Amino acid sequence: MTYRIAPSILSADFAKLGEEVSNVIASGADWIHFDVMDNHYVPNLTIGPLVCEAIRPYTTAPIDVHLMVKPVDRIVPDFAKAGANVITFHPDASDHVDRTLGLIRDSGCQAGLVFNPATPLNWMDYVMDKLDVVLLMSVNPGFGGQSFIPGTLDKLREARAKIDAYAERSGRKILLEIDGGVKVGNIAEIARAGADTFVAGSAVFGASKDSDPQRYNSVIGELRGALAGV
């Protein structure tokens, strides 16, 4: 299995965001995870399309936009134009899940659903043909630095079984992403449960505050080392 590490810029130094993005990709990250919160769907307010557009010139790596907003459809084309490659959203934040997934794909991006810890996975059963990514939250969304919720491992296994069964029927691959509390000490266990794409915010960006552009090499190397043993 190919594993992807997607540091969340929610934990980066916002005064040096372009530099942070460049450095973390140079240190071996695969994606940039972009957390969009509206202070309505979740109790926090973060960043929007203008920031996505601003960081796009700093990397050719995929930008993975996680929309924690309600409503969803209005802002999807803005992020597509700003340079997003992947756009995911919460099914309970959309009035028409199938239509929103279609809008994302018609905008030229890969599309996915995000499941909060208490959100059942059966939403995905009816739209598998439009899914490129399934993202499971292993914390309650809204803030970085939270601890991994252990019950997410069983949910990962359930999602992996659904995805694998669909892949066998259709030949289409859907990525299974995890977000929240991922660190060196638990990433192998999370991978064994079925995840192939890992969002890590504070574990990566909180690793070092010095000025060395390669300062993230060590923690990303440790994450990959743990995955190599799976």
What does this structure look like?
This protein is of the alpha/beta class. The protein has a single domain, classed as Aldolase class I (TIM Barrel). Helix content is 33%, strand content 17%. The protein is built from eight helices and eight strands. It has helices at residues 17-26, 49-55, 76-82, 97-106, 152-170, 187-192, 202-205, 217-228, and strands at 4-7, 32-37, 63-68, 86-89, 110-115, 133-137, 175-179, 197-200. It has an eight-stranded parallel sheet.
Concise description?
With about 230 residues, the protein is of the alpha/beta class.
Helices and strands, with pairings:
Elements: E1 4-7, H1 17-26, E2 32-37, H2 49-55, E3 63-68, H3 76-82, E4 86-89, H4 97-106, E5 110-115, E6 133-137, H5 152-170, E7 175-179, H6 187-192, E8 197-200, H7 202-205, H8 217-228
Parallel strand pairs: 1-8, 2-3, 3-4, 4-5, 5-6, 6-7, 7-8
* Beta-strand proportion: 15-25%
**CATH class descriptor name:** Alpha Beta
Structural class, from helix and strand content?
alpha/beta
Q: How many DSSP E strands?
A: 8
The number of helical runs is: 8
Number of domains: 1
Largest sheet: 8 strands, parallel
Cα Rg = 16 Å
Low-confidence stretches: none
Tell me which CATH architecture applies here. Alpha-Beta Barrel
User: What is the CATH topology classification name?
Assistant: TIM Barrel
Give the ordered list of helices and strands: EHEHEHEHEEHEHEHH
Tell me, briefly, the overall form.
globular
Into which percent range does the helicity of residues fall? 25-40%
Strand adjacency order, main sheet: 1-8-7-6-5-4-3-2
The mean pLDDT is: 94
What is the CATH superfamily?
Aldolase class I
Terminus-to-terminus distance = 10 Å
